[in-house]
Amino acid sequence: MSFSIENYKNCNFPSFNKPEIVGYFSLNTQSRLYSQDLSQLKYYNGATIRGSKTKVNLNLSEGINQVIRKPGNLNEKIDHLLQWITENHETIKASPDQNRWLRPDFVCFRGLLTRICSTPYNDQEDWIICAAKFQGTIYLCAFDTEEQKHKFANMSEKNLKFMSWGFKFEQFLLSETPNGTPITTKPVNEAEEFCCLYKSKLGKNTLFYGAEMDGVCSSQPLQEPIDWKTKKFVELKTNRMVKTDWQEKIYKKKLLKWWCQSFLVGIEDVICGNRTDSGKVFEIENIKVSDMPKICQDFWNPCDSMNFCNKFLDHIVAVVSQDYQEAIYKFDFKVGEGMRLEVLPPSSKYFFLPNWFTQKVDEMIKKTKTIGRCDDQGLETCS
């Protein structure tokens, strides 16, 4: 079964609720240990003004030989999202009239939604997204294609260096405390992460998704209870200095991904470090996210991207009918060929809902129903 990537055009911008933070967690050390706390939250103390450019002199290769890289064999899928859900399900629990366990129609990571939104203009990379239906909610998980697996397994020192430069840029601009001084002498740990959990609604589908966050703007340390509506995050990026028309074209096409990432979590500003080929950042630029579509109007349209995502999610709802114990739905996009769907057995290598999650949820639901019957019938009946 196929899905046309041409049925998103000439539509108004779909309704999209302002994203709201409902939780967070940190991933610590190289082994990415999960903890539901603010231990990996970083603060952005920059004074860059929107549209302005600040001259700097940062060496992104500083300490690059001591970088602690994220292990390539973790195979985490969406396990950290699932762990948060088991411990905080009351936050997103469905109302009794919904006839399911959780309120959201979809659970996934922001990166997956960004991938979907970028598809109408994607002429470079194939992707695989799998869907599993459990207790009325559809869980989505991205998988690497064979080409991507080969690319990651054989990544050159040059590409590893480019990736590390982005993390080093974050270290230069972020601190452990508000108004603190960034510590740039310690090794960069690329496995550490602070993640926020968001709820929103696109079209008629309610969404719950996790997103790695770079830095928060705050003059005071964040402490519970946190009023997230008053907090502002920024996204940090690096980009090769633009010298030619070709480089400008690449840059403007890249801004689609930056826009999607930021828009989906309500970020208003991207702080970009313009760098040389040798990894020296000579200029920091504050780019207003709402200006990106105008800057790139000859290359992409945000309306097309969000409409495609909206219609594709509607399509998933329409075709994903069987429970996760009966089928896994694999959506396979290939550049130049379009998209196709395979319905696979739960024994497939694309199965991604772990037993510890589904069993724990089933036990919680069973316990809730038992308590409900006791409340209706009286304690003596259930004793």
What does this structure look like?
With 383 residues, this protein is of the alpha+beta class. It contains nine helices and 17 strands. A hairpin with a 3-residue loop joins strand 16 and strand 17 (338-344). Helix 2 crosses helix 5.
In a few lines, what is going on in this structure?
It contains 9 helices and 17 strands.
**N-to-C SSE string, H for helix and E for strand:** EEEEEHEHEEHHEEEEEHEEHHEEHH
In which range does the helix fraction lie? 25-40%
Regions with little confidence, pLDDT below 50 for 5+ residues:
none
> Mean of residue pLDDT?
93
Largest sheet: 10 strands, mixed
Decide which structural class fits the backbone: alpha+beta
The end-to-end span amounts to: 52 Å
How many runs of DSSP E, i.e. beta strands? 17
Write the layout of secondary structure elements.
Elements: E1 2-3, E2 20-28, E3 33-35, E4 43-44, E5 53-59, H1 79-88, E6 106-109, H2 110-118, E7 127-134, E8 137-143, H3 146-153, H4 157-173, E9 174-175, E10 193-202, E11 205-212, E12 215-217, E13 232-240, H5 245-263, E14 269-275, E15 280-288, H6 292-295, H7 302-319, E16 328-334, E17 338-344, H8 355-377, H9 379-382
Parallel strand pairs: 6-8, 6-11, 13-14
Antiparallel strand pairs: 1-17, 2-3, 2-10, 4-9, 5-15, 7-8, 7-16, 10-11, 12-13, 14-15, 16-17
Helix pairs in contact: 2-5, 2-7
